[in-house]
Design goal:
The protein is 78% helix and 0% strand. It is mostly helical. The chain has one domain. Helix 3 crosses helix 5 and helix 6 packs antiparallel against helix 7.
Length: 193
C-alpha cells in the first residue's frame, strides 16, 4: 500500500496550515534574553515584560475611549519591584513600563517624562517605607503623593481643564488602590519564588 497523499488533500492541508515563520528579530530578542538570563534572574525579566505588555495594552485602549481616565501599571510596577528587589529595579520598572508604551503607541508628550518622574518617586517612597510597612500601605501612600505631584504637573504642562485633571487623578488613584488591594500580595508571592 502506498503512502502517497492525494493532491487535493495536500492542497487542503496547505490552505489550513501556514508555515511557521520565525523572524530574525525574534531570534535576536530570544538570544539577548538568554544571554541576560546568565547575569540576571530571568524571573525578574519575565515579570517586567509581562507588566510592560499589560501596561501597553491598557494605555493603548485609551486611544479608543475618549474618557479622562488614567489606568496604568507603572506605579504598581515601580513599587512592587522596589519592594521585592531594590530601588534600582523599581526605577527600571517604573520608567520602562512607560517607555515601552510610548514606543508602541508612537506617542511622546512632555507630560510623559514628568509621569516617569512620578513613577521614580513611587519607587523611592517604596524603598524608604519597605522595612516598616506592608505593600498595600506603601502603595496607597505612594499613589497619593504621586497623584498630587501629577495633578500639579498637569495644571502647568497640559492644556486640560481642571475637571479633567481631577478625573485623571481620581481614576488613577482608585485603579492603583484596586491593584494594590487585589494583586499586590499574589504578585509579591510570584516575584519572591
Amino acid at each position: 500500500m502506498s503512502l502517497r497523499v492525494n493532491k487535493k488533500v495536500q492542497e487542503g492541508i496547505k490552505k489550513r496550515y501556514k508555515p511557521l515563520v520565525i523572524k530574525k528579530q525574534h531570534i535576536m530578542i530570544a538570544f539577548i534574553i538568554l544571554i541576560i538570563s546568565f547575569f540576571i534572574d530571568i524571573k525578574r525579566i519575565i515579570v517586567l515584560v509581562a507588566l510592560c505588555v499589560i501596561n501597553t495594552i491598557l494605555l493603548s485602549l485609551d486611544r479608543y475611549i475618549s474618557l479622562p481616565v488614567d489606568l496604568e501599571f507603572s506605579t504598581f510596577s515601580a513599587i512592587s519591584f522596589a519592594i521585592v528587589y531594590d530601588l534600582k529595579w523599581g526605577l527600571v520598572a517604573g520608567i520602562l513600563t512607560k517607555v515601552v508604551t510610548m514606543a508602541y503607541n508612537a506617542n511622546v508628550r512632555a507630560d510623559h517624562f514628568f509621569m516617569m518622574g512620578g513613577y521614580s518617586m513611587a519607587a523611592v517612597i517604596a524603598a524608604i517605607m519597605t522595612p516598616g510597612f506592608n505593600i498595600i500601605t506603601i502603595g496607597i501612600v505612594a499613589t497619593i503623593i504621586v497623584n498630587i505631584y501629577i495633578v500639579f504637573v498637569s495644571i502647568y504642562i497640559t492644556n486640560l481643564y481642571p475637571v479633567e485633571i481631577i478625573m485623571y487623578g481620581f481614576s488613577n488613584f482608585m485603579f492603583n488602590i484596586f491593584l494594590f488591594v487585589a494583586f499586590s500580595e499574589p504578585l509579591l508571592f510570584i516575584m519572591g519564588l
